[in-house]
């Protein structure tokens, strides 16, 4: 029997779960490529390190943008590397389940399947990330009660309500943690004429940003490059400034949650009041986001255990539902 893999092909991070071995790979979804020869130099964290130390014609490629394939050829080559690093041999032709965003079009889904098959898989099944997250979080989605999951990843936010093994209603937006990072970069460039890297912007998001007004004002020194002189410099910025800069994006995430709730049948109201909303994904860890969503929806909100791995864990558990996936219920 061929080996089975579950893959969370995320905008910022790729995770792989191998049958009987658990999570075997967590790497940034980037690949270093020689732009002249098109030869792959490195994948994941090593790719970022290599590009900074090698000639300018070596470039960093991010084949996934906002939950969709932006570069088919690079995605195919990245999947080949992923299969190899996860322990799959070419002659084994592994069976693969891949989590995809609800907003992914049929064309994009076919592209993902085709890329995985060319990369060496024998069978490719797709499961929507919200379904995989709900399974991975251990929610009772097969029971006659409503369960709500909100998966806030780097590229997308998906809100979904499940009952009796199916999605009752769902909403998605191509806004996530990466959008917040880019907004923070734009704010520093606009207000301080300071260019900062995406890594620094992400650190600002983690250490400083908050989804809700925080009475404790925090000031941090942020270093970057002056866009006028080109010289290294630093500025001191308040938490309240960052909160204001990202408030529109936080609002759009919350509006996605509220739109999903607005579509739910009235009969599910009691279940949602009792069970609340469960958050997964890396951006679910944004400071005070659960409290902000709870305030806006008037429902209890909780971050699940291990929120960044729930999609790949749920996708791995879906192997027992292969027949349902193949019949189209999971993709």
| Order of adjacent strands in the largest pleated sheet | 3-2-1-9-10
Spans of at least 5 consecutive residues whose pLDDT stays below 50 are: none
Q: What's the alpha carbon Rg, rounded to whole Å?
A: 21 Å
Quote the average pLDDT.
Answer: 89
- Share in helix: 25-40%
Distance from N terminus to C terminus (CA atoms, Å) equals 24 Å
What is the succession of H and E elements?
EEEEEHEEEHEHEHEEEHEHEEHHEHEHH
CATH class of the largest domain: Alpha Beta
Notes on the structure:
The protein is an alpha+beta fold and 331 residues long. The protein has 3 domains: 4-131 and 311-326, Nucleotidyltransferase, domain 5 (2-Layer Sandwich); 140-175 and 247-308, Nucleotidyltransferase, domain 5, CATH 3.30.420.40; 177-245, Actin, Chain A, domain 4. It contains 11 helices and 18 strands. It has helices at residues 45-53, 72-85, 106-119, 129-136, 177-192, 198-207, 239-263, 269-275, 289-297, 310-317, 322-326, and strands at 4-9, 13-18, 22-28, 31-34, 40-43, 58-61, 64-65, 68-69, 95-100, 123-128, 147-152, 157-163, 166-173, 194-195, 219-226, 232-238, 277-280, 301-303. The strands form 5 sheets. A 5-stranded mixed β-sheet has the order 3-2-1-9-10, sandwiched between helices. A 5-stranded mixed β-sheet has the order 13-12-11-17-18, with helices on both faces. A hairpin with a 2-residue loop joins β12 (157-163) and β13. α2 (72-85) packs across α3 and α5 runs antiparallel to α7 (239-263). It is flat. The two termini are 24 Å apart. The relative contact order is 0.15. The model has no long low-confidence stretch (mean pLDDT 89).
């Amino acid at each position: 029997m061929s080996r089975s893999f579950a893959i969370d092909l995320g905008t910022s991070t790729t995770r792989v779960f191998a049958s009987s071995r658990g999570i075997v790979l967590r790497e940034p979804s980037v690949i270093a490529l020689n732009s002249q020869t098109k030869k792959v130099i490195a994948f994941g964290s090593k790719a970022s390190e290599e590009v900074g130390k090698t000639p300018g014609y070596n470039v960093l490629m991010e084949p996934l943008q906002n939950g969709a394939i932006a570069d088919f050829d690079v995605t195919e080559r990245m999947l080949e590397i992923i299969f190899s690093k996860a322990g799959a041999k070419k002659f084994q032709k592994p069976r693969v389940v891949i989590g995809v965003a609800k907003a992914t079009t049929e064309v994009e889904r076919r592209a993902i399947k085709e890329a995985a098959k060319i990369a060496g898989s024998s069978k490719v099944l797709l499961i929507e990330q919200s379904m995989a997250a709900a399974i991975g979080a251990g929610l009772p989605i097969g029971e006659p009660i409503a369960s709500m999951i909100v998966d806030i990843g780097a590229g997308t936010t998906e809100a979904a309500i499940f009952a009796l093994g199916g999605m009752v209603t769902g909403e998605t937006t191509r806004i996530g943690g990466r959008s917040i990072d880019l907004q923070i970069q734009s704010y520093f460039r606009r207000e301080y004429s300071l260019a900062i890297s995406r890594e620094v912007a992400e650190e600002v998001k983690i250490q400083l940003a908050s989804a809700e007004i925080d009475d404790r004002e925090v000031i941090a020194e942020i270093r970057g490059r002056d866009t006028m002189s080109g010289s290294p410099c630093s500025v001191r910025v308040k938490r309240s400034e960052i909160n204001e800069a990202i408030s529109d994006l936080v609002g759009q995430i919350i509006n996605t949650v509220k739109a999903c709730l607005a579509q739910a049948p009235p009969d599910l109201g009691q279940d949602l009041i009792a069970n609340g909303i469960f958050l997964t994904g890396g951006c679910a860890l944004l400071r005070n986001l659960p409290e902000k969503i709870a305030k806006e929806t008037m429902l209890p909100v909780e971050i699940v255990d291990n929120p960044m791995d729930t999609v790949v864990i749920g996708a791995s558990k879906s192997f027992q539902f292969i027949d349902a996936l193949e019949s189209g219920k999971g993709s």
